């Protein structure tokens, strides 16, 4: 199981940006799609809003919205 969770929505261009970056770097996530109502509720409970992408790093407790911030975080995390 990955220590990274990514809340996403099919077709979301910002989610695709994060997923493409992760794929290039060999980073794997547990993906949770907010098309599932239960997952959307879980996301709102965690972050306060229904916005994707949303990253959860279980290893160090980091959670964040915004694709650019997520890509920057993942870039630093893998270096």
How would you describe this protein?
With 79 residues, this protein is of the alpha+beta class. The chain has one domain (4-78): Glutaredoxin, CATH 3.40.30.10. Helices cover 46% and strands 22% of the residues. It is built from three helices and four strands; from the N terminus they run βαβαββα. The longest helix has 13 residues, at 13-25. The chain is globular and about 35 Å long. The two termini are 21 Å apart. The model has no long low-confidence stretch (mean pLDDT 94).
Task: List the defining traits of the structure above.
79 residues, alpha+beta, Glutaredoxin, four-stranded mixed beta sheet, 3 helices, 22% strand
Biggest β-sheet: count, sense, barrel? Answer: 4 strands, mixed
CATH superfamily annotation: Glutaredoxin
Instruction: Kindly state the percentage of residues in helix.
Output: 40-55%
The gyration radius over C-alpha positions equals 12 Å
Mean pLDDT: 94
Shape verdict: globular
**Secondary-structure content class:** alpha+beta
What oligomeric state is this?
Answer: single chain
- How many angstroms does the end-to-end distance come to? 21 Å
In CATH, the architecture is: 3-Layer(aba) Sandwich
What is the total domain count? 1
CATH hierarchy, class: Alpha Beta
What ranges have pLDDT less than 50 throughout 5 or more consecutive residues? none
CATH third-tier fold name: Glutaredoxin
Total count of helical runs of at least 4 residues = 3
Number of strands: 4
What is the strand content? 15-25%
Order of helices and strands: EHEHEEH
Spatial strand order of the main sheet: 2-1-3-4
